[in-house]
Amino acid sequence: MTLNSHISDVLTLFREQRQLSRTDVMEITGLSRSTVNQRLTALHAAGLISAIGGGESTGGRPSSLFAFNPARAGLLAVDVGASGFTVALCDLQGTPLRYVTRTVNVWEGPERVLGEVLEALDGLGDLTGVWGIGVGVPGPVDFAAGRVVNPPIMTGWDGFDIAGWFRSRFQVPVVVENDANARAAVEARTLQADNLISLKLGTGIGSGLVFNGQVVRGNEGAAGDIGHTRTALAEGAALLQCRCGNVGCVEAYASGWALVRDLTELGIAVSSATQVVQLVKEGNITAVRLVRQAGRVLGDAVASLVSILNPAVIVVSGQLAECEEVLMSGVRERVYQRTSPLATRRLVITTSTLGNLGGVTGLALITADQIFSADAIEELLRLAA
């Protein structure tokens, strides 16, 4: 194990457990006292941990207690969805300190959307002391390159150097991630679930996978994208056109935009997923029927993932999650019908408790993971000390 990995691993302990003594770190890591002292000294000098008083005595002098210092620096998080975005200044623990939300259509292209993002970032105030930026987008991402790859709905974004665009303006490390993966990362940490499927249901449908505690991205960044798989409902019905150009996709039957289309065709004037949710809350019979059917379509789609991957939790977020049991009853119905009793014996299917800022929190956490990794932390400590 290298020097940098030792420092990174020790810092990870403080990020996860908040307060630890020297003795705690020695017992958990197996490192010697002198090595632990060196690591703690480096982290303390960089302001990443702070001494907070004495710990339990082991017979000699009390062992100093240390805690992670999330206020040491800031992280910018930019959560771009199909029809809007949220930008936030977060602390190093991912907690949003200030944020701005705006409406924009992602298919208007990167220059238009990111220009709006830049203006919104100005509204966050003083951004000195920012150590990294996390950007989430609703499409497959080449994580290493920081670029979108063949996105179904992001016209003009294919291959665009998102990471470079931000680096040229802020001169800090930039992480680009699929927005549903970012959401999955924070859901997994919040729920303490190492094996989880996260569904993000708004204008479109996003899905993220966390298994064995790691985000599963796949070879081309497209892992888990159930929104553009063929719906079981479509096999015996006329295939509906999806925004991605294919027909019969899950998103063409169960997304916010699909529900708006269907309600409009039935003479009910709506223009957004938010308005669909409001109709459901008001008890509109047609909206309730369509949303419940959307839940069944989603349940069919995710059932295969449950059989193959055997998650502990399926968590649903986004605007349509506010339909609660009207939607979730359909999801549960089909998942339990189409998977084995063993795969669903302890499966929890629930809605998120994180609210609209869960995405920016997830992006901040993934960004922190990158800047505090063994490969990057030496340079960070040099600049921070």
Q: Could you walk me through the main structural features you see in this protein, from its secondary elements to its overall organization?
A:
- With 385 residues, this protein is α/β, with parallel strands linked by helices.
- The protein folds into three domains: 3-68, Arc Repressor Mutant, subunit A (Orthogonal Bundle), CATH 1.10.10.10; 72-183 and 359-384, Nucleotidyltransferase, domain 5 (2-Layer Sandwich); 194-354, Nucleotidyltransferase, domain 5.
- It is 41% helix and 20% strand.
- It contains 14 helices and 15 strands.
- A five-stranded mixed beta sheet has the order 6-5-4-7-10, sandwiched between helices. It has a five-stranded mixed beta sheet with strand order 13-12-11-14-15, with helices on both faces. Strands 1-3-2 form a three-stranded antiparallel beta sheet.
- Strand 12 (205-211) and strand 13 (214-215) form a beta hairpin.
- Helix 1 (3-17) crosses helix 3 (33-45), helix 8 crosses helix 9 and helix 10 (285-309) runs parallel beside helix 11 (325-338).
- The protein is globular and about 70 Å long.
- It starts with a helix and ends with a helix.
Structural topology:
Elements: H1 3-17, E1 19-21, H2 22-29, H3 33-45, E2 49-54, E3 64-68, E4 74-80, E5 84-91, E6 96-103, H4 110-122, E7 130-137, E8 141-142, E9 147-148, H5 162-170, E10 174-178, H6 179-191, E11 196-201, E12 205-211, E13 214-215, H7 251-254, H8 256-265, H9 273-281, H10 285-309, E14 313-317, H11 325-338, H12 341-344, E15 348-351, H13 358-371, H14 377-384
Parallel strand pairs: 4-7, 7-10, 11-14, 14-15
Antiparallel strand pairs: 1-3, 2-3, 4-5, 5-6, 8-9, 11-12, 12-13
Helix pairs in contact: 1-3, 2-3, 6-13, 8-9, 9-10, 10-11
